[in-house]
Recover the amino acids of this structure.
């Protein structure tokens, strides 16, 4: 294989996608973006199995840890350093049970919906618990995808289910916060903030869709930056605001901040790339 480089074959089956690469180990482990070997991944994989039970356990542990590398470039800060360090441990333990990734998705959706109902309460303690539940659901949200990869049960349906349920939970969380602020303060302004915020969500969706249409080789890195900026680290902010009974700050900031985010994203998309794929 000396001098042969790396040969890669990618599956064309949308339900069982995957890639097999053959080549020199140093080249296989090379980080394309940095041009050097990824230290984090090289400490984990590959791993030789010699038939011993402890080898199998060690291989499973290393494989589960390596899941953090899949989304490292697109995860926001807290998701990368906190959420993923918890989720891979949960995924590893669930992988040896009969629980499926789709079941985790549905259970996590139920947790998110429960949190949204609690946010609509006038009770300080219920709102604080709601913020903690939502933060927990953010962590668990990464488990379904990791579990699917560990058990080799990834599917298009599972991916679509995850996206749909995530959006449902987001809308209900925001609605619960606005309704809770209205019930607590009695101000009709919070009833108006909800449709304003929904309009902001639509603006963000359009801006992100346009950003995904950028042409050129830099598009992949640009998309990863979008994912990082538009991540769900705001769940940590919700816990802090709920702790100080200031969820109203989040309601006002979210209602108008979504428009600011959409405008900045569109401006950056056009100023950085200049053109959009004409076929989009």
């Amino acid at each position: 294989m000396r001098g042969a480089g790396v040969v890669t074959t990618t599956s064309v089956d949308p339900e069982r996608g995957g890639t097999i690469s053959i080549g020199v180990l140093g080249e296989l482990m090379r980080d394309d973006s940095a041009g050097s070997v990824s230290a984090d991944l090289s400490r984990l994989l590959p791993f030789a199995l010699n038939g011993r039970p402890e080898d199998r356990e060690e291989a499973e542990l290393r494989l589960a840890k390596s899941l953090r590398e899949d989304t490292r470039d697109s995860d926001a800060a807290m998701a990368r350093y906190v959420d993923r360090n918890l989720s891979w441990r949960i995924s590893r333990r669930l992988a040896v049970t009969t629980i499926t990734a789709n079941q985790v998705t549905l259970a996590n959706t139920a947790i998110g919906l429960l949190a949204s109902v609690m946010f609509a309460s006038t009770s300080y303690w219920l709102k604080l618990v709601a913020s903690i539940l939502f933060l927990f659901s953010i962590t668990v949200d990464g488990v379904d995808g990791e579990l699917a990869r560990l058990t080799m049960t990834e599917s298009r349906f599972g991916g679509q289910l995850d996206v749909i349920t995530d959006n449902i939970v987001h809308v209900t969380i925001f609605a619960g916060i606005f309704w809770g602020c209205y019930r607590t303060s009695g101000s009709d302004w919070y009833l108006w903030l909800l449709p304003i915020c929904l309009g902001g969500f639509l603006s963000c969706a359009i801006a992100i869709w346009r950003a995904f249409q950028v042409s050129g080789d830099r598009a992949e890195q640009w998309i990863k930056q979008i994912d990082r900026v538009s991540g769900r680290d705001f769940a940590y902010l919700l816990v802090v605001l709920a702790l100080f009974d200031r969820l109203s700050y989040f309601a006002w900031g979210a209602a108008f901040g979504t428009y600011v985010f959409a405008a900045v994203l569109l401006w950056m998309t056009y100023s950085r790339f200049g053109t959009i794929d004409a076929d989009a």
